[in-house]
Automatic annotation (TrEMBL), chain A:
Cellular compartments annotated: Cell membrane
Organism: Reyranella soli
Membrane topology: Multi-pass membrane protein
Pfam families named in the record: BPD_transp_1 (PF00528), BPD_transp_1_N (PF19300)
Keyword 4Fe-4S: no
Name this polypeptide is given: Peptide ABC transporter permease
C-alpha cells in the first residue's frame, strides 16, 4: 500500500506543475505589471525608477526564471506581499482558510445527515409518496442557484422573522453560541444543494445495489430485512456516495466564493474575491494555487479512502 | 498518418460514400424512433416540453416583448406586476419580463456555445488519447488532471479578471466566457471519451473487425464513436444547466456581464438592495434560473433513463 | 418411509412489467420426499429459477405476484406465512445456493463475516463460536487452510472455491432442504464435476432433500432421483429419472435428449429442436410448445395440456396421450 501511495504522490507532481503554470501565466497575461500598480496612476514614469524597481522585482529576467523563482518561493510558503495590506500573503491566506473549511465541513456534514437516510428510504420505498417527494425535492434542489437560495433564506429568516443575523462571523472557539447563529444560514445554503445532490446519489447507488444478487442471498439465509438493507446493501452503496461526497467537499472549497460574499464570511473565497476587486494579484495568485493544491491532495485522500473501503480494488 | 494509412482511408471513404445516403435514412428513422422513445420516460417528456418552451421563448423574444430591456424609465421604477408590466419593473424602471427574456436568450446561447465548444475539443482529445495509449495518453491525462484541479469558480474568476483587465467588452466578453466555460467542460468530456475508447478497444468486435481487415482508424470511427454518444449527451445536457448557474453566479458577483446588459445573475445582485421594499424583483430572475436549470436536469435525467437499458424496468 | 418435504400445488407466478404482464410459472405442481434429489430441468426463461425463488419467497412483491397455488413445506403453506415466520424458515430449514457466487456473495464483507451473520442470526452463536463453526464449515466443503482463508474476501477465491463458500453458507444452519439454482453453470467444466460431487455427498451425509435446478441433462442424470422438465412456465414432464431418460413422453423432453451430443457414435447428426423459445410476453395459444413440435395437432393449438399420469409416477402434459383416455 505504501508503494501505491508513493506512486500516487509522484503522479501529483506534474499535476501540480500544470496548476502552478496556469496560475503563474494568469498574472503574466495581465496587461501592465506590478510596477504600474506600485507606481500608481500619477505615473512616476521616470525610466530610471522603473529600471530600479524592475530589478528589485526581478522583472528584468526571462519568464522561465521568474517562474522557477516564484515556484521555489511558493513551495516554501513565501507568496510575496499583499499589494493592499502590505502583509505577507501567507498570513492573509492562513486567516481565511480555517473559516472556509469550517463552513464547508459543517455544510457537507449537515447535508449527509439528511441526504443519506432520505436517499436510502427513497430507494427502499421505491415509487411511494416519500420516494416521489424526495426525488422532486432533490431535483429542484440541484436546480436552485445557491446564491438565490441564500438570499431567500436571508429574506425570510433574517429580514422577515428576525431570528438569525443576515451576515457575519464569530469564532466558534471564542463564542460558540454566536458562532452558531452566524453559521446556520450559510451552512444551510451550502447544505441544501449538497443534500439534494447526495440524496439523488444515495438513492441511485442503493437502487443499483438492491438489485444485486447478494441481497437475495442475505435474505435467503434468514437475515432480517433491516439487517439486509442497513448492514449489507448500504455499506456497498456508501462507497460511491462517500467517494463522490469527498470530491464534492474538495470542490466546495473553491465554490464558496459567492456565499462567503453574501454572508460576509471571512473565508478564503471572499479573500480572493476582494483581492480581485482590489487588483491585489499576488494574493489572488497565491490563493488559487493553495486551494488548487488542497484540492489535489484531497482527491488523493478520496482515492485512498475508496480503495480502503472497496476491497475489490487493489492498490495496483 | 503514414502514406499507407492515408491510402487505405481514401479507399474506405470511396467505398463509404454511397453508404452515407443509407446512413442519412437511418438517421431519420432514428430521430423518428427517438420521439417515440422519449415519450417512454415521464421526466424526459416534461423536460422536453419545458425546453421547447424555453427555446421557443428565446427565439421569439423580439416578437413577444414590447419594451426595450436597457432603456431606463425612472418614472416607473419598482412597480409591482401589472397589466402594463407583466412582472413589474426594476430599480431603473425597466420591464422585468423583457429583461428576463433577453437575458435568457443570451444565457442559453452562451451555454449552448460553451458546451458545444467543450465537446468539440474534448471528444477528439479523449478519443485520440485513449486510442494511442502509452506515453501520449499519460501526458494528456496529467494535463487534464491539472485543469481539473481548479475547484469551483476559481478558474472562471481568473479568466474573467483577465478579461476585465484587458478591457474586453460586449460580445468579446461573452466570447471569453464561452471559451472559459467550454474549456472547463473539456476535461470531463475527454475523460468520458477516453474511457469509452479504452473499454471498447478491449472488446471482441474490435478484434473481429481487425481480423476482417478493417483499418484501425475506421474501427475507431465506426465502432467506438456511437458508444460515446449516450453518456455524452446526458452529460452535455446536465452541463448546460450547470453552465447557466456558473454564469449567473459570476454575474451575481459583478464579474460576468457589465451592466446594463440584461443578465439574470446581475439582476439578482441588484435586487438585493431592494429586498425589503420590493422583494419580488429578486424572485423572478431566480425563478427563471430555476426553471431553466430544472428543464435541463429533467431532460438529462430522462435521457439517462432511456439510454441506459439496464434501467428499463425500474 | 416417504415423507413429503416439499409440495408445489398449482403454483403460479406473474410479473407486472411496464411492457405488459408475464406469467413466469404457470400451474407448477410436483413434490419432493425426504432424502430425495429432484432435478428441475429447462432452458433459460423456462421459469425454473423463478420457481426456486418463489419457494424461498424471494420474489419481489411489487412487480411479482403469486395469484394462485400453494407451496407446502413440511405440511404448511409458506405462502400464508408472515414475514417473520418465513425468515425463521430461511437458513434454518430451507437454504439456497445461487448460480454466480461472485455476484451472490457480498464483495465488501469477508467470508467469515457473511457466514457468521447467518450463524449468529439463526443459531444465536457468539462471535467466537461462530468463527469456529465457520472454520468447521469451510473444511467441510473442502476449502484448504480454512483458518487462513477465513478473513479473505470473495474475490480472493477462485471460481470453484467461491461456490464452496456459497455452499458452506447455505449449509451453515443445518437446513433439511437445499435448493441449488444452477450451481455449476458458471464454473469450468473440470470444476463442475467436483462441486457436483461435493453437493451430492453433503446431501447424503446430512440427510437433506435437494431441489436441483439446471439446464444440463448430464448433471441430472448423475445427481437426481426424480426429474421435472419445464418449458415456458409449465411443467411438461415429471417422473423418475430412469423412466424419463428411457421412455420420454413429451416431445420437448425427447428433443432435449436427442440434442445431446453423444460420444458413443450412435447418432450421426445433432438434432436440435426446431424454432426457438417462445416470447413469454406474447406466448402461443394452447400448448406453448406446439410451434416447435413435429407432432402438433389441432387440439394443441387450442388447449393447454394438463399433466396426466402415463405410467405409475410418470406424468406428462401432452395431448398425444389424450387419445387413450375417453
Amino acid at each position: 500500500m505504501l508503494a501505491y501511495i508513493i506512486r500516487r504522490v509522484a503522479y501529483l507532481v506534474p499535476v501540480l506543475l500544470v496548476l502552478s503554470m496556469v496560475v503563474f501565466t494568469f498574472v503574466e497575461m495581465l496587461p501592465g505589471n506590478i510596477i504600474d500598480t506600485l507606481v500608481g496612476s500619477e505615473g512616476v514614469n521616470d525610466p530610471e525608477v522603473r529600471k530600479v524597481l524592475e530589478k528589485e522585482y526581478g522583472l528584468d529576467q526571462p519568464v522561465y526564471i521568474r517562474y522557477a523563482k516564484w515556484l521555489i518561493r511558493a513551495v516554501q510558503g513565501d507568496f510575496g506581499y499583499s499589494l493592499v495590506t502590505r502583509r505577507p500573503v501567507a498570513v492573509e491566506l492562513m486567516s481565511g482558510i480555517p473559516a472556509t473549511v469550517y463552513l464547508a465541513v459543517v455544510g457537507i456534514s449537515l447535508s449527509m445527515l439528511i441526504a443519506v437516510p432520505l436517499g436510502t428510504i427513497a430507494a427502499v420505498r421505491r415509487n411511494t409518496a416519500i420516494d416521489y417527494t424526495a426525488q422532486v425535492t432533490s431535483l429542484i434542489g440541484i436546480s436552485i442557484p445557491e446564491f438565490w437560495f441564500a438570499i431567500l433564506c436571508v429574506l425570510f429568516f433574517s429580514l422577515y422573522l428576525g431570528w438569525l443575523p443576515s451576515s457575519g462571523f464569530a469564532n466558534p472557539f471564542v463564542d460558540p453560541w454566536a458562532s452558531l447563529k452566524f453559521l446556520i444560514l450559510p451552512a444551510a445554503a451550502i447544505g441544501f444543494r449538497q443534500a439534494a445532490y447526495t440524496t439523488r446519489l444515495t438513492r441511485s447507488s442503493m437502487l443499483d445495489e438492491m438489485n444485486k444478487e447478494y441481497v437475495d442471498t442475505a435474505r435467503s439465509v434468514g437475515l432480517s430485512e433491516r439487517k439486509v438493507i442497513f448492514k449489507y446493501t448500504l455499506r456497498n452503496a456508501m462507497i460511491p456516495t462517500i467517494t463522490i461526497s469527498g470530491l464534492q467537499l474538495a470542490n466546495l472549497l473553491g465554490g464558496t466564493v459567492v456565499l462567503e460574499s453574501i454572508f460576509a464570511w471571512p473565508g478564503i473565497g471572499r479573500a480572493i474575491f476582494e483581492a480581485i476587486l482590489q487588483r491585489d494579484y499576488p494574493l489572488v495568485q497565491a490563493g488559487v494555487l493553495v486551494l488548487g493544491v488542497i484540492v489535489v491532495i484531497m482527491n488523493l485522500l478520496v482515492d485512498l479512502t475508496y480503495r480502503l473501503l472497496n476491497p475489490r480494488v487493489k492498490f495496483g | 498518418m503514414t502514406e499507407i494509412q492515408a491510402d487505405k482511408l481514401a479507399e474506405l471513404q470511396a467505398v463509404r460514400a454511397p453508404a452515407l445516403g443509407g446512413r442519412l435514412i437511418r438517421w431519420r428513422t432514428a430521430l423518428g424512433n427517438a420521439w417515440h422513445e422519449l415519450r417512454k420516460s415521464r421526466t424526459a417528456s416534461i423536460g422536453a416540453v419545458m425546453l421547447v418552451l424555453l427555446f421557443g421563448a428565446c427565439i421569439a423574444t423580439p416578437w413577444i416583448t414590447t419594451y426595450d430591456p436597457i432603456k431606463q424609465n425612472y418614472r416607473e421604477r419598482l412597480q409591482p406586476p401589472s397589466e402594463k408590466h407583466l412582472l413589474g419593473t426594476d430599480r431603473m424602471g425597466r420591464d422585468i419580463y423583457t429583461r428576463l427574456l433577453y437575458g435568457g436568450r443570451r444565457l442559453v446561447a452562451i451555454a449552448l456555445l460553451a458546451v458545444t465548444f467543450g465537446l468539440s475539443v474534448g471528444i477528439p482529445y479523449g478519443v485520440l488519447s485513449g486510442y494511442f495509449g502509452g506515453k501520449v495518453d499519460t501526458v494528456a491525462m496529467r494535463f487534464i488532471d491539472g485543469l481539473l484541479a481548479f475547484p469551483g469558480l476559481l478558474f472562471y474568476l481568473l479568466v474573467v479578471t483577465l478579461a476585465r483587465e484587458w478591457k474586453i467588452e460586449g460580445i468579446a466578453n461573452d466570447a471569453v466566457l464561452v471559451f472559459a466555460l467550454g474549456f472547463a467542460f473539456m476535461p470531463e468530456v475527454a475523460r468520458l471519451s477516453r474511457g469509452t475508447v479504452l473499454a471498447e478497444k478491449q472488446k471482441e468486435y474490435v478484434e473481429a473487425s481487425r481480423a476482417v481487415g478493417d483499418g484501425s482508424l475506421s474501427i475507431a470511427l465506426r465502432q467506438i464513436l456511437p458508444n460515446i454518444i449516450s453518456p455524452l449527451i446526458v452529460n452535455a445536457t446536465v452541463r448546460l444547466g450547470y453552465v447557466i448557474l456558473i454564469v449567473a453566479a459570476l454575474s451575481f458577483l459583478g464579474l460576468g456581464t457589465p451592466p446594463p446588459t440584461p443578465d439574470w445573475g446581475s439582476d439578482l445582485a441588484a435586487a438585493r438592495d431592494y429586498m425589503e421594499t420590493a422583494p419580488l424583483i429578486a424572485a423572478f430572475p431566480g425563478l427563471a434560473i430555476c426553471y431553466t436549470v430544472l428543464a435541463f436536469n429533467l431532460f438529462g435525467d430522462g435521457l439517462r433513463d432511456i439510454l441506459d437499458p439496464r434501467l428499463a424496468e425500474r | 418411509m416417504a415423507e413429503t418435504v416439499l409440495e408445489l400445488d398449482d403454483l403460479t407466478v406473474r410479473f407486472h412489467l411496464r411492457r405488459g404482464d408475464l406469467t413466469a410459472v404457470d400451474g407448477a405442481s410436483f413434490s419432493i420426499e425426504r432424502g430425495q434429489t429432484f432435478g428441475l430441468v429447462g432452458e433459460s426463461g423456462s421459469g425454473k429459477s423463478v420457481t426456486a425463488k418463489a419457494i424461498m419467497r424471494l420474489i419481489p412483491a411489487p412487480p411479482g405476484e403469486i395469484p394462485r397455488g400453494r407451496v407446502l413445506f413440511e405440511g404448511s403453506n409458506i405462502l400464508d406465512k408472515s414475514d417473520a415466520e418465513m425468515r425463521a424458515l430461511r437458513g434454518r430449514r430451507i437454504a439456497m445456493v445461487f448460480q454466480e457466487p461472485m455476484s451472490a456473495l457480498n464483495p465488501v464483507f469477508t467470508v467469515c463475516d457473511q457466514i457468521s451473520d447467518a450463524l449468529r442470526t439463526n443459531l444465536g452463536l457468539s462471535k467466537k463460536e461462530a468463527r469456529e463453526r465457520v472454520i468447521e464449515l469451510l473444511s467441510l466443503v473442502g476449502i484448504p487452510s480454512p483458518q487462513k482463508r477465513l478473513d479473505s474476501y470473495v474475490h480472493e477465491f477462485s471460481g470453484g472455491m467461491r461456490q464452496r463458500v456459497m455452499l458452506a453458507m447455505a449449509l451453515s444452519c443445518n437446513p433439511n432442504f437445499l435448493i441449488a439454482d444452477e450451481p455449476t453453470t458458471a464454473l469450468d467444466v473440470t470444476i463442475q464435476a467436483t462441486i457436483l460431487e461435493l453437493i451430492t455427498s453433503m446431501i447424503e451425509r446430512l440427510g437433506m432433500s435437494l431441489l436441483f435446478i439446471t439446464h444440463n441433462l448430464g448433471v441430472v442424470a448423475h445427481a437426481c432421483d426424480r426429474v421435472g422438465v419445464m418449458y415456458a412456465s409449465h411443467i411438461v414432464e415429471l417422473g423418475d429419472k430412469r423412466e424419463i431418460f428411457a421412455r420420454p413422453q413429451h416431445p420437448y423432453t425427447v428433443g432435449l435428449l436427442n440434442s445431446i451430443p453423444r460420444l458413443d457414435g450412435q447418432a450421426k447428426y445433432l438434432t436440435p429442436i426446431a424454432g426457438s423459445v417462445c416470447n413469454m410476453m406474447d406466448p402461443p395459444s394452447g400448448c406453448k410448445f406446439h410451434p416447435r413440435c413435429s407432432h402438433a395437432m389441432d387440439v394443441c393449438r387450442r388447449e393447454i395440456p394438463r399433466l396426466k399420469e402415463i405410467a405409475p409416477g410418470h406424468l406428462a402434459a401432452c395431448h398425444l396421450h389424450d387419445r387413450g383416455t375417453a
